[in-house]
Amino acid sequence: MADNDTATGGTGSTSGPASGSTAVELWFDPLCPWAWMTSRWLMEVERQRDIDVTWSVMSLSVLNEGRDLPDDYRTMLDKGWGPVRVIIAAREAHGDEVVKKLYDAFGTRIHLQGMGDDLDAVIEQGLAEVGLPAELAEAAHADAHDEQLRASHERGISLVGDEVGTPVISVDGVAFFGPVVTPAPKGEAALRLFDGCVLVAGTPGFYELKRTRTQGPIFD
């Protein structure tokens, strides 16, 4: 989740962007409401701008391994292995194109439909919506795909350091945590935010620009 919410948070597609488009990659954990907000904003940018987005998994559960956390947050992260494991398993079996579809299906249920306390149901219904085999849900409670999950996570977090969380975005090789924003900007405002983020993140020696959040995610 967002930075300082106690350090929150496959190898994705390696194919290059279409000629003339801007290569963008976003690393997400389906549990994080702020990553969900950022992803909706990036979709709005994608609708208006020639960008080629790769959607990749990072894991708050991996990020916070070995850290001293409040009991309720640790419980959430223990359950949080399920959705990211299933997305990685589905990607390995069915290709990169299912990653975004499953993120949308899982995220809609977690953040918009209030199903975050029943992640097994989120996974079951999400797989059905996307048209993937129900057997993939078994990956949620096994470590068979953890090596690939950790590799995807590390590829993203290595670009920004482990003192931040999700989302992580890379734009033509310039990477940053965030933006943490609510509600997700639309129209010209979405483009202004995109251009501004890329501008400041690409400035040599720039590390941080921040203010305290005064409201939670606004899902609209």
The rounded Rg comes to 16 Å
**CATH fold call:** Glutaredoxin
Looking at CATH, the homologous superfamily is: Glutaredoxin
* CATH class division: Alpha Beta
Number of helices: 7
Uncertain regions spanning at least 5 consecutive residues:
3-18
Approximate shape: globular
For the secondary structure, the number of strands is 4
- Biggest sheet strand order reads 2-1-3-4
Topology as a string of helices (H) and strands (E): EHEHHHHHEEH
Largest sheet: 4 strands, mixed
Beta-strand content estimate? 5-15%
Helix content, binned percent: 40-55%
Which class best fits the helix and strand makeup?
alpha+beta
Protein name: 2-hydroxychromene-2-carboxylate isomerase
Pfam families: Rv2466c-like
Keywords: Isomerase
Region (Disordered): 1-20
Molecular structure report:
Pfam families: Rv2466c-like. InterPro entries: Rv2466c-like (IPR053977), Thioredoxin-like_sf (IPR036249). It comes from Terracoccus luteus. This is 2-hydroxychromene-2-carboxylate isomerase. Residues 1-20 are annotated as: Disordered. With 220 residues, the chain is an alpha+beta fold. The protein has one domain (22-201): Glutaredoxin. The protein contains 7 helices and 4 strands, in the order βαβαααααββα. The protein has a 4-stranded mixed sheet with strand order 2-1-3-4. Helix 1 links the parallel strand 1 and strand 2. Helix 3 packs antiparallel against helix 4 (97-112) and helix 4 (97-112) packs across helix 5. The two termini are 19 Å apart. The model is unreliable at 3-18 (pLDDT under 50).
